[in-house]
Amino acid sequence: FFKRLNKLTICFRTSTVAIKRRSRVPGVMITQFVEEVPEGMSTPDFTRKPIALTIQEGKLAFFKSMVSGVPKPNITWARNKGPLEDPVKYISRYDETMEEYFLEIPNVRAEQADTYKCFAANEYGRAVCTATLNVIEGPKRAAPEDFRKMVVRTKPQLKKKEGEIDPKFWEVLLSSPKKDYEKVCMEYGVSDFRWMLKQLNLKKKEREEEQAKVVEKLENLKHIEVKRDGSAEFELDMELKNPNSQVFLFKDGVMVPYSDDGSGKHNLNKIGKKYIFSINDLMPDDAGLYQVDVEDANCFSTDFKIIPVEFVVKIQEVKAKEREDAMFECVLSHPFQKIVWTGKKIPLEQGDKFDITVSEDHLIHSLKVKDCAQLDKGVYTAMAGITSCNAWLIVEADNDPNMRGGKASRKTTTAGGGGENLAKIAAEQSAKLQKEKDDLDAARRAQSEKDAADAARRAQAEKDAADAARRNCEGVWLKDGQLLTNEDGLKIIQDGASHKLVIENCKKDDAGVYSFEVDGHKSEAKFTVSDPPTFNMDSLREFSKPVIVRACETAEWKLAFSGGDPMKIKWIKEDEELLEGLNVKIEQTDIKAGLCITDCQRRNCGEIKINIKNDYGTLEATSRLIVLDKPTPPQRPVEIVETSLTAIEFKWKPPKDDGGCPVKHYILERQQVGGSKTWTNVGELPNDPLKYRDTNVKPGKRYCYHIRAKNEEGVSNALETEDIQAGILCYPGPPSAPKVVSAFKDCINLVWSPPINTGGTETWGYNLERRKKGSNFWSPANLDGPIKDTTFALKDVTEGAAYEFRVSAINISGVGEPSPPSVIVFARDPKMRPQFTGKMKSFMVVRKGNTVRFNINFEASPLPDIYWLKDCVPLSKRVTITNSDRGSQLLIPTSERSDTGIFTIIVKNMVGQETFSVEIRVTDDPKPPGPVELEQNVPGTVTVTWTPSPDEKKDDRLHYVVYKRDSVKRTWRMVADSLFNHKFTVINILPGREYNFRVFAKNDMGLSEPAVSPTWKTTRRKGHITEKYVKGLDLQCPPSFLLRLKICTAPPGYECYMSCAVRGDPKPHVTWYHNNVSLNTNTNYLITNVCGVCTMLILKIGPKDSGEYSVIADSPLGRAECSTKLTVRGSISQSQHNKMLFFCDRNNLQFKHQV
């Protein structure tokens, strides 16, 4: 019943067909979209496919292909790992002369190595092939010397001045996160945080503007810190706008070179967008301000400070015994918050193994190694800044003879450590540092006191000199050479050496040259009384209001002012001076100025200024002139939005000048060209939107329109449009003949192409018509309205009937010419091999007497024949079979144990067949086993025996479960399960306790009632034990099987256990074989070996698992082997199928065996 379809796979869906086949060209797969390709047409295929390519990096790579197919296929390219949308990296072109398609990859790179695909597709199918591109590394070219790198660049460094903040403070602060601001301020002695934040925001804004020129993104700035390997590192994440921009490293304003391979003093390691700068072999002169610049923009600054710390007391060698603690201690010359400890070049951290402590003065640092072992010995190092010291830890083995073969106990003693001596040295060092600090503070105070005393002496000397001058100075005041006295309305005031002349209520007569003479010395100055121009405030308020006039009217301005002569007055309009002329009149007096503009026009609108100037100042006032007039005509061009059979729509632009007030309406008039000469008023349109749709038009006629703008001052001149023609009747052409995509008994799916000639307008939809074979009458198929798409699923069909279809397009003019008729298609399902649908059980357990009902769902076309078998033979009359188009049901109204078996369904039609088997087991609650007897054959054990359950012969899956309860725990505990015999030996039976046992029979339905044993009790005997000398025995023996494998028969779909017992010393290696093939590495088999009991579990039995199984035990003393056979029940061999003949119709089944 089985047919193998080589090189052809047919997939049926609800609306499409996909037939896959291979091309004659190797490596090309073709997918056909339709069931039958029309005559003269063909699916795409490759006559030359792209070949795999291996090319050097930087060269031009290209793939070339040639295709065939009618209509001409469309070629597209793709790759597995990304798109091909970049037109610079991937160029797709077609050579019309050679009819070849190319995909070019100029300047190929390593990341473009991939598998590329070429697709050729038309409406009947698609072909695809692949080609691999391998990119190998090109020869490395020596980079040309960059002489700019040979020039040592420097940056100007501001030096710290007395009493000012160190300039380094701002550089470090600009590169620090907000959480570190307080720390940086404390380090540089800045306490005014509000002032600092204000200045920082200004500097940060300037710095970001510089960085924005060269850097796209800057983040994750980490300041310099000393690493455990003795180097210093700082890093930042930076994305450059130009990848070729140069990155410079400066130290204290001087550029330092760096290497990329980590071999230099200063190095740069770049990982993606992360830049990591490192400094190796640290020295004291490596301290300073490090800055990273991109071109001329500073991006990062960090201050590297090296504390001049030294080891006053270095760590010493420590000898410790196993399980004892070891202590390393050192004393530093300056306080250090945390030093780095390493053991055998591995960093050490606080934890269960190591205890790191620091004294309160941060001078004594200690490391305790807890519970020393031989693995802990080695060199330990203490690193403080760039200074380090090291010492050995020697771990001595514990030679206590009493602990031989065991683990020594934990010791509470500690080896090493300086104790009180280190504390004394640290105290002396702390006192020394405090004394140095006190001496420095005292020197600063002394210097401050000295500077204050010097300043006081200088101030006293200056005061004494001033007092002496004040006592001896007498002088006179003069105006234009005339002596002045207090009687002239002036005040002359003398206060020691200070002389003042006060003039109250200045007048113009007070102007002149004033001088002061004393002891032959003279000083003079010129005094002028100014009178700048000023405006009268009421007059200025009126002048500032805008002057609004209508066209051809007169505008006037007047403004009163005052001020000293001479006065110069200018009138200015839009930055140009107004001069008196035909339309401009200017009036001017000593206290008033006026301007008059006659016959005002829209061009006169604008700002009017008056500028008044004299020798003492300038004054300016501003007003505005607004002239109202009717608007100008709307602006050209008039844009035509739509011209159709029923409407003309156009829009226009507003007037360039609205006349000083907004346009409220537009007035439209229309005239038919070639008809009446009169203009018809269309009406007034609102200001928004500026478009009009005229629906009162006749097809093919031309129209002209007048458009006028209207505001409060009047109506503009007309804008006349060009002639606009309404649409003409133009029906669409015929679409292509409908193509049948797929056909079923209740649905036919059609597709067609739009018409080439659309009639110049948009296609609104399509009408589909049909007729039966042999008929001349076409009936509409789309009763719900025009079809909007070029596909349609027709469901109103008669099963088995033959149809033809045609389609016509619809536009604004109407329905166009119909297409040619389609090929004749039958409304029936496509041929389909039977296949089962839904989830199905392969095993069922049913209680005796209950109904057995098993449903099978399938799909097949044409309708299949259905056969049911039980254990490879036809069903009895007790079984009822009900078949339908999509399923079959097996029913046994009242089940018996004899109904147990493997039921097989065979679904077959002309395309193929499918089978499925289910095991149905009819059983009942098991009956309990017979009386239970107890017997002791070995001390400490009890052998439990019982009479088998009456159901054992009826149910091959029935087994036994044994439970135990003693007088101490008083709970039932299972001691054995899955027993297929009638005896079990219970171990660990203790004297003096009472034991009870229960035996249950168990099958697929559950447990039976228990069979209860009599109480078992043994008395505890007291006696003396005499130790006897036992002569040593040689227990070595070759492998041998205590329990061999048994022959197994199992139904398919079940689990299968195989077990055996093997002995041997030394322990033998056990290997399982199936038909002489090793199973030890096969994951489908679960193999265990516990204390010589070897078991193998087959999770799900199938026909392929039948055969010979063997176990081989190997050891150096010999080899043992045992084997068995596994038979799988219910499997139908091919030879048995060939000997069976089936005669059936839809409802009956006859079985006949061929002799």
Automatic annotation (TrEMBL):
Keywords: Cytoplasm, Disulfide bond, Immunoglobulin domain, Repeat
Transmembrane segments: none
Residue intervals of the Ig-like domain: 44-134, 834-923, 1039-1127
Chain segments carrying region Disordered: 400-419, 444-463
The keyword Disulfide bond is annotated on this UniProt entry: yes
Record domain Fibronectin type-III: where: 633-729, 734-830, 928-1022
Gene Ontology CC terms, in alphabetical order: M band
Localization in the cell: Cytoplasm
Example GO biological process: sarcomere organization
Name by which UniProt lists this protein: Immunoglobulin like and fibronectin type III domain containing 1, tandem duplicate 2
Organism: Oncorhynchus kisutch (Coho salmon)
Taxonomic classification: Eukaryota, Metazoa, Chordata, Craniata, Vertebrata
